[in-house]
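BUG: 3D viewer hangs when loading the predicted structure for this chain

Environment: internal workstation, default settings.
Expected: structure renders.
Actual: progress bar stalls at 90%.

Input used:
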Amino acid sequence: MSMASGSSSREPPDILTQTAPRLLHAMAVFVLCGFAALGVAAIVERGGTATQITAATAFTAAFLALQLGYFSRPGARLRRGRSYVALAAQAVLAYLPMLEFRVFWTSLPGLLVGSALIALPITVAVPVLVGVLISVAAIDVWLSGSIVSSAYAFVYTLVSTVVVALITYGLTRMARLVGEIHAAREELSRMAVAEERLRLARDVHDVLGLSLSAITLKSELTYRLIAEQPEWAREELADVLVLARRALTEVRMVASGRQELSLEDELALARSVLAAAGIDARIGRVEVSLPARVATVLATLVREGVTNVLRHSKARWCEIGLSRVGSAVVLDIVNDGVPVDPVDAVSSGAAGSGIPNMRHRIAWLGGELVAGAEDGGRHRLHATIPLEHEEQRGS
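Structure tokens produced before the viewer hung:
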């Protein structure tokens, strides 16, 4: 079983992907400014005075300030009350100049409808759309000279207003959606990095804890024996070298994200380490054929349980039992070293991250882990993992 798969290597996003939100916003700004400038351009083309051109430019600039600064601004939070006020201001800027510029000022109502579609619920935006279309068409027909030109003005105004409104709405929504997708992608990348860091920290804690504790214990034992029993000390030192090489291999496996542990090796190491600490190790097991994923989790649990016995208890004996109950495998780690004094229990550091990590691993296989003190100063670590799903998967 792989304790956690490392994040797959991904190619860095290209420049176009990184700048897409800004490019789309720039495109929206360009198109909206172009639509707004049509009225000023029509007045200039028809020979408007300098005063008229200046007034038209001022009206257009104010309208665009509301459009780009509020309705079409990336990340803007459109509140209902503010939206109504801004739409009322845009309506004044769209309709009032018609008294002066007449038929040359019919491009801004389309932007007004686009703003309504962006900021208002559809049940409110559609009546606004219909009202603007009817009012603008009526004004255009009223301002035109003949019946033929009135019909032409009606159709032209109707179509152009709808087109401008839909383009305004579409470009603004597209720019915002791309920005949201870009932000979500960056958040997912940050979450992936955080998850990988959590995996590495969890695996380092769970996998290397017992090896480092064993190296420490055997080194201390070697130091005590080296003067009086050099042969025994030499044997212990040889074990330390084996454990150090093993820990180095485990570090490489943890870094690569691929790891399978041998339950037999872990039980043998647990017996050796407990004996080196002066703890009577009692290991009993029933031969159970285990899938590699389950065996790896149980081996990791043996490491965690024995490490906790060495670090957080004053045990004289420790029992490790493995059995099969029905369609599940059961592992129990029991010791008699629970501190009687609550102060000792706190100072022992029992509230670490190892047990929560193991609960996470076992729950991922559909199992359950229970840990706690029992009567008589004993502590029990009890894990149950169902085998039926793993056996079906293996077959």
